[in-house]
Design goal:
With about 725 residues, the chain is α+β, with helices and mostly antiparallel strands. It has five domains: about 90 residues, Alpha-Beta Plaits (2-Layer Sandwich); about 230 residues, no CATH class; about 90 residues, Calcium-transporting ATPase, cytoplasmic transduction domain A (Distorted Sandwich); about 150 residues, Rossmann fold, CATH 3.40.50.1000; about 100 residues, Calcium-transporting ATPase, cytoplasmic domain N (3-Layer(aba) Sandwich). It is built from 27 helices and 26 strands. The strands form five sheets. A seven-stranded mixed beta sheet has the order 14-26-25-24-15-22-23, sandwiched between helices. Helix 24 links the parallel strand 24 and strand 25. Helix 8 runs antiparallel to helix 14. The longest helix has about 35 residues. The chain is elongated, with a radius of gyration of 32 Å. The N terminus is likely disordered.
Length: about 725
């Protein structure tokens, strides 16, 4: 498999995989707590590759991939380390990160969704059977036959309503205990009154019972509730995912002896060893060794940073080329990585306070419904003295004004718009994301991995003599540095042979050197090879004689980036670039893409603070980012988007995921969000217009509960059809 992020697949095995994967993952975790994140796993082939590779390693008992969670759980002997597993997966093109299973949620199954779906299925099955019985009654069944059918309907309907209506009853009871009227209060009253009146009519041998209306009402409402749930479901908390990314173990050095211990056992002043390729488990100061540090995950910097004695490093950074010994300055909850997680948790809780259009409508709607129903009951009881008639009319008012259409207004539109955006390569994760996206007036972009591809590419290979290219190919092949890997891949693709360089070795923190025809050749940092540094990203080749030559790199802009920014600016949006990278590459990209406002060297808390400042000034901010350093900003923005290639934590913190590499669908998302908001408002208008006509009919006593249920169903269908116009 290629090491690049694979494209999405829609094979049948991918569809079937999630059904059994959660159970398999839980079984594996009971045996051993080794869990790895697999950001690029996407299909059944990936499952097979990962599981087969890991199972072949000595000491690994089993490996189970959870494709939905993008994780693999491994049961292994105590001597098997996460580093071995990560290295094996890297060799087949799957980058992986260790997760701490103790910090992940234990409730990973989709219980709420399955519960709603089960209740919806029961209500639908019962509704069809009661309708069959009702047809016989409507066709002229009399006396004992009619009563028998009513009793059979009651035997089906009452248990079904008690079971399937539970989500509404529980929510209504919670609302009443909190002394407020939620949308579920009139729904519950309508269900209870319709079934109570029907049961009374059945006991009294009456001509009409409304069990079919009650169960149909329950079915339609559950359908709306399930659509709403599916549109809002987010798999996990981003703060939880960030916390789980912390390295759970570290190699502590005590008296010259190395011991692997949990992070919780480390104290300030302890010494830990971090090997090449491993992430920093703590914040600390380098006391021994030299290397280069990849900080792109935390800061967005594209170039690795040299680290030697006295250098400060942070948890989550990656040690690239040489072993380092650190003196611990912060561990566990005190690290910079955990502080980012805390920022995300605070931002997520703040964003949940957004009140949707449906919620705002419900606050005004519910009290009016109850007042009208009680008024109808009181007036008819006063005028006629007939309790049975007054209750029937009150029930009809409650049913005909039941907010089923209101409950469907938002999820029906969100589902329709989500399908349209999915076909354009955007996945909506949050039910209110489209409403918030339609309000956006400012768009903030990250640079590395968001506006750019996030991988360096050589730009001037053809300008170098072939002999130099052959030397560079031999040296680059022996280095783990990101620039060397990119150069090696480009030279291999160009068909450049490798020179006969011997004694190739990597000098941690500086570069790689070897011997060619009796002279030393080097590829690495400018000061190490004796070259004059140039502007921009470059690595330098010294051939032992003559001046050193520079291989320049660029981080190529994503396809569609220019079009997306032009379209957003054309729609009147303010566009800002905030990057953790250095000034030169940020300024160059901003100029190329036509972004007038930009800032470089932004830390994660500074990005989140900048967005908070914009929003305090009244802006509605869309944040687009992909890295760990973007998660707090993504969570604090009014609405957020991340690419599918982003780190797991960034994808979870965002409301919308961009599935492909092309950025041009971003402007489509903003446009479709505006259309969806318009449809939602139209649905509310349709619902209110229906009530303006139907309510007087019910108040005047011209609508039985059955007619009220049919009218309510018609309004729900109308709302759904209007939502489908988005497609």
């Amino acid at each position: 498999m290629s090491s690049s992020a694979p494209s999405l697949s829609a094979c049948p095995a991918c569809v079937a995989a999630p059904a059994a994967e959660a159970l398999a993952e839980r079984r594996a975790e009971k045996q051993e707590g080794l869990v790895l994140s697999l950001p690029t796993a996407h299909c059944a082939v990936c499952i097979s590759d990962v599981e087969r590779t890991l199972a072949a390693l000595p000491g690994v008992r089993s490996a189970r991939v959870n494709l939905t969670q993008k994780r693999v759980s491994v049961a292994a002997a105590p001597g098997v380390t996460a580093d071995r597993l990560i290295a094996a997966l890297k060799n087949i093109g799957y980058p992986a990160h260790e997760l701490d299973p103790g910090l992940l949620s234990a409730t990973e199954t989709d219980r709420a969704g399955r519960d709603l779906l089960m209740r919806l299925g029961v209500a639908g099955f019962a509704m069809m059977n009661i309708m069959l019985l009702s047809v016989a009654v409507w066709s002229g069944a009399e006396a004992a036959t009619r009563d028998l059918f009513h009793w059979i309907s009651a035997a089906i309907a009452l248990p079904v309503l008690a079971f399937s209506g539970q989500p509404f009853f529980a929510s209504a009871w919670a609302s009443l205990k909190a002394r407020r009227l939620g949308m579920d209060v009139p729904i519950s009253l309508a269900l209870i009154l319709a079934s109570s009146i029907s049961l009374y009519e059945t006991f009294a041998g009456g001509h009409h019972a409304y069990f079919d209306a009650a169960v149909s009402l329950c079915f339609f409402l559950l359908a709306g509730r399930y659509l709403d749930y599916r549109s809002r479901a987010a798999a996990r908390s981003a703060a939880e995912e960030l916390t789980a990314l912390e390295v759970p173990r570290a190699t502590r050095i005590t008296g010259g002896i190395e011991t692997v211990v949990p992070i919780a056992e480390l104290a300030i002043g302890d010494f830990v060893r971090v090997r090449p390729g491993a992430r920093m488990p703590v914040d600390g100061v380098v006391t021994e060794g030299t290397s280069e540090i990849d900080r792109s995950l935390l800061t967005g910097e594209t170039l690795p940073v040299w680290a030697g004695e006295g250098s400060i490093v942070n948890a989550g950074e990656v040690n690239l080329t040489g072993p380092l010994t650190l003196r611990v300055t912060a561990a566990g909850r005190d690290t910079s990585l955990h502080r980012i997680a805390d920022l995300v948790a605070v931002a997520e809780s703040a964003r949940t306070r957004y009140t949707s259009l449906a919620d705002r409508m419900a606050r005004a709607y519910s009290p009016v419904v109850h007042i009208m129903a009680f008024g109808a009951f009181s007036v008819w009881l006063y005028l006629t003295g007939d309790l049975r008639l007054a209750v029937n009319i009150a029930a009809a008012v409650l049913i005909i004004t039941c907010p089923c259409a209101l409950a469907l207004a938002v999820p029906a539109v969100v589902t329709s718009a989500s399908g349209k955006l999915f076909r354009k390569g955007l996945l909506i994760k949050d039910g209110t994301a489209l409403e918030r996206l339609a309000e956006v007036d400012t768009v903030v972009f990250d640079k590395t991995g968001t506006l750019t591809m996030g991988t360096p590419e050589p730009i001037d290979i053809a300008a170098h003599p072939r002999a130099d290219l052959e030397i560079a190919a031999a040296l680059a092949a022996g280095s783990a540095h990101p620039l060397s890997r990119a150069l090696s891949a480009a030279l291999d693709a160009a068909g450049i042979d490798r020179a006969a360089v011997t004694d190739v070795r990597e000098e941690p923190g500086y570069g790689v050197e070897g011997r060619l025809k009796g002279r030393t050749v080097r590829l690495g940092r400018a000061e190490w090879v004796g070259a004059e540094p140039t502007d921009g990203t470059a690595t330098y080749l010294a051939k032992g004689q003559g001046p050193a030559s520079a291989f320049a790199f660029t981080d190529r802009a994503r396809p569609g980036a220019t079009d997306a920014i032009a379209a957003l600016k054309g729609a009147g949006k303010r566009v800002i670039l905030l990057s953790g990278d250095t000034e030169a590459p940020v300024a160059r990209l901003a100029s190329d893409l036509g972004i007038a406002e930009w800032q470089s060297g932004q830390r994660p808390d500074e990005k989140a603070g900048h967005i908070a400042m914009l929003q305090e000034a009244g802006a509605r901010v869309l944040m687009v980012g992909d890295g760990l350093n973007d998660t707090a900003a993504l969570a604090s923005a009014h609405v957020s988007i991340s690419p599918a290639s982003a780190l797991d934590a960034a994808r979870v913190a965002s409301d919308i995921v961009l599935l492909g590499q092309d950025l041009s669908p971003l402007s489509d998302a903003v446009r479709i969000a505006g259309q969806a908001r318009t449809r939602i408002k139209q649905n509310f208008a349709l619902s209110l217009a229906y009530n303006a006509i139907a309510v007087p009919v019910a108040l005047l006593g011209f609508a039985t509960p059955l007619i009220a249920a049919l009218a309510m169903s018609t309004s729900s269908i109308t709302v759904s059809l209007n939502a489908l116009r988005l497609k």
